[in-house]
Amino acid sequence: MWIEPLQVAGTHSAIYEAYYHQVDPQGTGAIQALDAARFLKKSYLSDVVLSKIWDLSDPTGKGYLDKAGLFVALKLVALAQAGRDIHMNNIHSDAPPPKVRDPKHAAPPPNEKFRGGSTLPVGDRKGGPGGHSRGGPGVPAASVSSDYFCVAV
What we know:
Elements: H1 5-9, H2 13-23, E1 31-32, H3 33-41, H4 47-57, E2 64-65, H5 67-81, H6 144-148
Helix pairs in contact: 4-5
C-alpha cells in the first residue's frame, strides 16, 4: 500500500520534513533500523509501543524505513503521545505533531500515559517469538523491534 508522506503529515509537514532530514541527513532514502530506533526512542514511548509502530511502519519487513515509512512512524508516535489508538486506520487523522526530543536537552514528559503504556493491548502483537517474525539485513528474525528498541540513546 502506497502512502503519500505529505498526506500523513497533514498540516505538520514542515515538522515531519525537519525530523526526516535530521535522521537521514545525507538523503539516502533508507533509514536503517538501528538509526530509526535511536531516533524514535527520543519520543519517550515504551518499547512495546515503539515495536508496534515499527511493525506498522515497515509492513513488508525491509529492515529500514523510507521517507513514507518514517512519516508513518512519526504519525503513529503522535497518535500514541495523544493517547489515541496506534492503527493504520488512524493514519490520516488529525493529531498534534510528534514530540521527539534529544534526551540531553529535554526531560522526559511527566505524564506516564505519554510513554504509551496503555495504548497497545498485548494480544495485538503479531509474529513469532517475542511478537516479531522478520529481521532486516544482518538482523535475526524475531528481533527487529524488540532488540532495536532496547538501545540506549
